[in-house]
């Protein structure tokens, strides 16, 4: 990810702050930054969402297509992820610089979302063994200010909530009306270890002070779908347990306000003020 | 654990009652706007001749000095002048100099002969000094320095030959646009709220806990890595959020405006200052107080 250069004294200041539960911007170790979520921003997709968290900006678009299902699971649909790290975010991503990070992010998203507890993939099936819906999820990173995973997973969940796919009845080439797709998705929570404590929603400076981080994907019911360690440093087994517990708690607590917000957004319908990209 | 999610809203521009509207007195232009069709003027920076008309090439305010017309841009990279105080980060260590990032078009240069080395001011720089440059300043270190001169290509030459300049220790760096920092007599302030600030002309603002003894040499290369007390941390975090709030509303930054903003932010919790409506409130109160003070 984009990195900032930071001096030794600044690192010490940040780490002492995390120890005292007062980060540089006044947040506690488990507080998130202010988030702004908007759905239905891209008109030619089936569902889209844009999330802005601090200076991190993520745009997700979803398109649904009819394909043959996978041979080992003929009665389920599936999701395909593609993460594009745009050069807008940081000059490091110019040309093919962002490819490696993009591939890593896509693979993590596969693991997180392609499991029974996260999404009801059976609802994507149209005709077992013949046709199923494939959701192509495209993620575009517009700006990078730390905590990409959380922003991406919130955006994907909001976009999936916003996705409308037609109801298809297999009856001699007939098609029906529109249907809303609601999923029970997991939600990533990235915990970064700074010093001896861990923080949630780290900024780029805090990330520069940390050696390792743990990614925990949690569904609204508290089930953990994926745990992944990122970073070159080592983690103590006790701290892994602690971080997973905190990740579960924080991740679970994030689902409720998000669903509330998405319901409110939907209920506003046509009266909703469209802000788009020029705010 | 606090989570704040909301739908985006268009930010409304807040204007104060009693202040003269921005249209009087300021001639604002965008690229392509015709400034004047009169050919009697000399054209300065930020303008070009399109047919016979003087047109602006940047977005900013038109300045006229007798016959010279130039446009000062609102948002630009830092253009250094001799005597400016800057805060910069070391990016490279080269043979006899360091390259410093100062948010300008080119990296600034800090020559080995322009720094204070231990052992006295007038010591001759030896080959050993060259080899041990990294012991003094490494990549990533922050320094405060003054602009000594400007090279022909626009790069700045810095110096730290005074005790108040040198390597910076523990603290917080805030980056804003250079045009928001007001030019004043002194850029080093010990704020009464309990922290100190260096307002670099290049838009880099450095917040740090006020050093204990007043006669302590700050220009040295020894940085204290002791624990900063929690009360000082709170003041620094609050000041940081206030600076970001003022910068987001394009308020000129100097010690008085920062102090007023800090005082009006005491009603809120530190982490709430960056919420849009709280920011609007705080900046409005600050602007009002600044206007009252002027009038």
TrEMBL record, chain B:
Keyword Chloroplast: no
Keywords, ordered alphabetically: Cytoplasm, Exosome, Nucleus, Phosphoprotein, RNA-binding, rRNA processing
Residues of the K Homology domain: 171-210
InterPro entries per UniProt: Exosome_cplx_N_dom, Exosome_RNA_bind1/RRP40/RRP4, KH_dom_type_1, KH_dom_type_1_sf, NA-bd_OB-fold, S1_RRP4
Location in the cell: Cytoplasm; Nucleus, Nucleolus
Stored Pfam families: ECR1_N, KH_6, S1_RRP4
Cleavable signal peptide: none
Residue ranges constituting the Exosome complex component N-terminal domain according to the UniProt record: 28-65
Molecular function, one GO term: RNA binding
Quaternary state and interactors: Component of the RNA exosome core complex (Exo-9), composed of EXOSC1, EXOSC2, EXOSC3, EXOSC4, EXOSC5, EXOSC6, EXOSC7, EXOSC8 and EXOSC9; within the complex interacts with EXOSC4 and EXOSC7. The catalytically inactive RNA exosome core complex (Exo-9) associates with the catalytic subunit EXOSC10/RRP6. Exo-9 may associate with DIS3 to form the nucleolar exosome complex, or DIS3L to form the cytoplasmic exosome complex. Exo-9 is formed by a hexameric base ring consisting of the heterodimers EXOSC4-EXOSC9, EXOSC5-EXOSC8 and EXOSC6-EXOSC7, and a cap ring consisting of EXOSC1, EXOSC2 and EXOSC3.
Family named by the database record: Belongs to the RRP4 family.
UniProt protein name: Exosome complex component RRP4
Annotated gene: EXOSC2
């Amino acid at each position: 990810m984009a990195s900032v250069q930071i001096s030794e004294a600044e690192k010490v200041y940040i780490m002492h702050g995390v120890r005292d539960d007062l980060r540089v911007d006044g947040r506690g170790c488990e507080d998130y930054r202010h988030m702004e979520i908007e759905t239905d921003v891209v008109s030619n997709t089936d569902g889209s969402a844009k999330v802005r968290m601090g200076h991190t900006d993520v745009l997700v678009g979803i398109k649904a297509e009819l394909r043959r299902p996978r041979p080992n699971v003929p009665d389920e649909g599936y999701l395909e992820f593609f993460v594009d790290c745009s050069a807008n975010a940081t000059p490091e991503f110019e040309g093919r610089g962002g490819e490696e990070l993009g591939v890593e992010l896509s693979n993590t998203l596969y693991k997180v979302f392609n499991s029974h507890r996260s999404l009801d993939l059976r609802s994507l099936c149209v005709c077992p063994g013949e046709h199923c819906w494939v959701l192509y999820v495209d993620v575009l990173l517009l700006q990078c200010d730390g905590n990409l995973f959380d922003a991406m997973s919130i955006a994907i969940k909001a976009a999936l909530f916003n996705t409308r796919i037609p109801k298809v009845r297999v009856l001699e080439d007939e098609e029906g009306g529109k249907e809303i797709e609601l999923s029970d998705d997991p939600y990533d929570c990235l915990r970064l270890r700074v010093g001896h404590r861990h923080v949630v929603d780290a900024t780029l400076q805090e990330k520069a002070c940390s050696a390792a981080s743990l990614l925990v994907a949690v569904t609204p019911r508290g089930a953990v779908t994926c745990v992944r360690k990122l970073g070159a440093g080592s983690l103590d087994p006790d701290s892994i347990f602690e971080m997973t517990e905190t990740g579960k708690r924080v991740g679970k607590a994030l689902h409720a306000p998000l669903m509330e917000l998405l319901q409110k957004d939907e209920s506003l319908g046509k009266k909703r003020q469209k802000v788009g990209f020029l705010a | 654990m606090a989570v704040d999610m909301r739908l985006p809203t268009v930010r409304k521009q807040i204007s104060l009652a009693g202040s003269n509207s921005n249209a009087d007195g300021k001639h604002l232009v965008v690229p392509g706007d015709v400034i004047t069709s009169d050919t009697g003027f000399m054209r300065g920076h930020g303008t070009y001749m399109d047919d016979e008309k003087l047109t602006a090439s940047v977005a900013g305010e038109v300045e006229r000095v007798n016959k010279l017309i130039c446009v000062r841009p609102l948002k630009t990279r830092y253009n250094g002048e001799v005597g400016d105080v800057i805060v910069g980060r070391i990016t490279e260590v080269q043979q006899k100099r360091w390259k410093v990032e100062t948010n300008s078009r080119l990296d600034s240069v800090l020559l080995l002969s322009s720094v204070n080395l231990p052992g006295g001011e007038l010591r001759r720089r030896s080959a050993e000094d060259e080899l041990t440059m990294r012991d003094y300043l490494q990549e990533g270190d922050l320094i405060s320095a003054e602009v000594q001169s400007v090279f022909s290509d626009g790069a700045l030459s810095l110096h730290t030959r005074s005790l108040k300049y040198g390597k910076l220790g523990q603290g917080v760096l805030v980056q804003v646009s250079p045009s928001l920092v007001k030019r004043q007599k002194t850029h080093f302030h010990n704020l009464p709220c309990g922290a100190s600030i260096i307002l670099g002309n290049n838009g880099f603002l450095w917040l740090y806990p006020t050093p204990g003894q007043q006669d302590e040499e700050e220009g040295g290369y020894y940085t204290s890595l002791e624990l900063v007390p929690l009360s000082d941390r709170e003041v620094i975090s609050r000041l940081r959020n206030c600076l970001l709030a003022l910068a987001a509303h394009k308020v000129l930054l100097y010690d008085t405006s920062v102090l007023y903003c800090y005082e009006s932010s005491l009603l809120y919790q530190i982490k709430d200052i960056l919420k849009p409506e709280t920011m609007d409130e705080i900046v409005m109160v600050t602007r009002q107080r600044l206007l009252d003070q002027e009038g």
